[in-house]
Amino acid sequence: MLSAHSKAHVDCVSRVLKNASGLPQAPVPAPILDSWRRSEQHRLDPGSLQGPRILDQTLLRECRERAELFLRIASEEVGRLHGQVRGADYCVLLADAQGRTLDYRVDSAIRSDCRKAGLDLGTWWSEGEEGTCGVATVLASKMPLTVHKRDHFRAAFIGLTCSAAPVFDPQGELLGVLDVSAVQSPDDRRSQTLVRQLVAQSARQIENAFFMHSAGGHWILRAHAAPGYVDSQPDYLFAWDADGRLLALNPAARRYLRQRFGEVPGHIAEVFDPDALRAAGDGVAQPLLGRGDAPALYVRLSAPPRQSRPVPRVAARGAELDPRIAEHLRLAVRVKDRNLPVLIQGETGAGKEVFARQVHEASARRGKPFVALNCAAIPESLIESELFGYAAGAFTGASSKGMRGLLQQADGGTLFLDEIGDMPLTLQTRLLRVLAEGEVAPLGAARRQAVDIQVICATHRDLAAMVAEGSFREDLYFRIGGARFELPPLRSRSDRLALINRVLEEEAESCGEPVGLSGAALECLLGYRWPGNVRQLRHALRYACAVCAGGVIQPDDLPAELRGGRLATGEDAAALSTDPERQALLDALVRHRWKPGPAAESLGISRATLYRRVNQHGIEMPGKRRG
């Protein structure tokens, strides 16, 4: 039999749900009314006094392990929030995206009362089982709100007040819900306004902390409408990679972009003018205008942290290496060890940095640092401080300890300057002096410091033409070009098969499972022109590994542009692939890594017969140059 309180609650819920559409204003906020309707659809009993579902210890442990990163990042802010509200007898809950309470802070004096009310570690607050409550309603509405006392659908919880806010990851997906609850509170819902604001603020802090963790290694822009809050409480956070592609946004930045553009742009240059963005890169919070008529925001731009990167494993091994590249490598090592600067030229994505690292690893300086800077991937205003470093207090916002530049970090080793053609003229002059004198002067420093470096530069631009037009210094051009090497594009390399196999091994290893290539898919890769070179090859195989089924990449698993140009003869691939003899040849060649002797032996034919059939079926052997 229902108590008087429970019966009154059931009558209230029933009356509101029955008459809400005819009332000028509902007696509860709209999100609460919507949740009541959903709870009724779930066939929940508003008079039920049963407490929430509680996870067993094994399941709770598994859920906490899966959410370990979220819990670790949120832990400090959860504790800080509890410190703000504990004096008023509130507890703090952190639930995952399914509503399971994985972290819980409560004073021992009220722990027993909270547990009796259903507030405990491991409680599962799903709207389908518990109806309208703080965690469940936020999961459904995805916005901060307060579920106060009789706002709860089930009578078991009508004594509680719960203020909660969602926590989103940098891709806009829900991570969980932060909730502050109390067993006793005033009847007026407005008494919870401050608590709700505190919860929403803490949820934003967790989101920002998760953002900063996830965006490590990328460009980060902090922004706020007022300059004093850019560092401590930024409203907007943007992160993008070296190519300018937006990778991460905090929820406020995501809303900002949708309000202004109707959708989230894919590139930072669509949001801010690149020149204005570069001007914001001196470490000082300053105003930045967005595209169009957007009001200025105060921003601070942070460059990716410098770190030693593993050598990209995309070069073929030993005898598999294209003979031209092998000869270039041999000569480059010899001239580098004679203290001659090396200039590598080639198309974008042709593997210039890989080649530079190979030269360094084979040179006499192999045990010393290899330091790389992409001159095209860093704002112009930051290149100078990156290269030369700065003394303590050199400019507003500078580190109090100063910073060693890349030239000093490369002392004794090799400095690799990629896309040297994009270096500003003013810095070309300073770099030339360093190369000529062997000394570097950090920004704001009174004394010059000696450095012993060898330089390898790379570019896809025509530096001679840039010299003629005055955009590149002639004396620097001759200084860095002591020995010049042109890397062939992937489409003309004889080691394409070795590269394909090597990159596929690496991408399959990243996926955590073996992945193979069908003969038809391999023919697509061997016959494609590769305008994006090795970088495009890696992206294509990464995509194929992600989408293929059964552990074998088929032509349909490759990006569309590869499928469209897979046959040099223009014949229909589907028709060719149905020829059993042709498919048997391809299978044998792929299985034996395109070695004709073992492939012919496995088919029970001579090498001469193998070659004749290969020609008959229009199969191109790797290493055979196209006319």
UniProtKB/TrEMBL annotation:
InterPro entries for this protein: AAA+_ATPase, AAA_lid_NorR, GAF, GAF-like_dom_sf, Homeodomain-like_sf, HTH_Fis, P-loop_NTPase, PAS
Biological-process GO terms, alphabetical: regulation of DNA-templated transcription
Domain Sigma-54 factor interaction per the UniProt entry, residue ranges: 322-546
SUPFAM superfamilies assigned to the protein according to its UniProt record, in alphabetical order: GAF domain-like, Homeodomain-like, P-loop containing nucleoside triphosphate hydrolases, PYP-like sensor domain (PAS domain)
A molecular function GO annotation: ATP binding
Transmembrane regions listed in the UniProt entry: none
Keyword tags: ATP-binding, DNA-binding, Nucleotide-binding, Transcription, Transcription regulation
Family annotation (Gene3D superfamilies): 1.10.8.60, 3.30.450.40, Homeodomain-like (1.10.10.60), P-loop containing nucleotide triphosphate hydrolases (3.40.50.300)
UniProt keyword Transmembrane helix, yes or no: no
PROSITE patterns: SIGMA54_INTERACT_1, SIGMA54_INTERACT_2, SIGMA54_INTERACT_3, SIGMA54_INTERACT_4
This protein's record includes keyword ATP-binding: yes
Protein name: Sigma54-dependent transcriptional activator protein, AcoR
Lineage of the organism: Bacteria, Pseudomonadati, Pseudomonadota, Gammaproteobacteria, Pseudomonadales
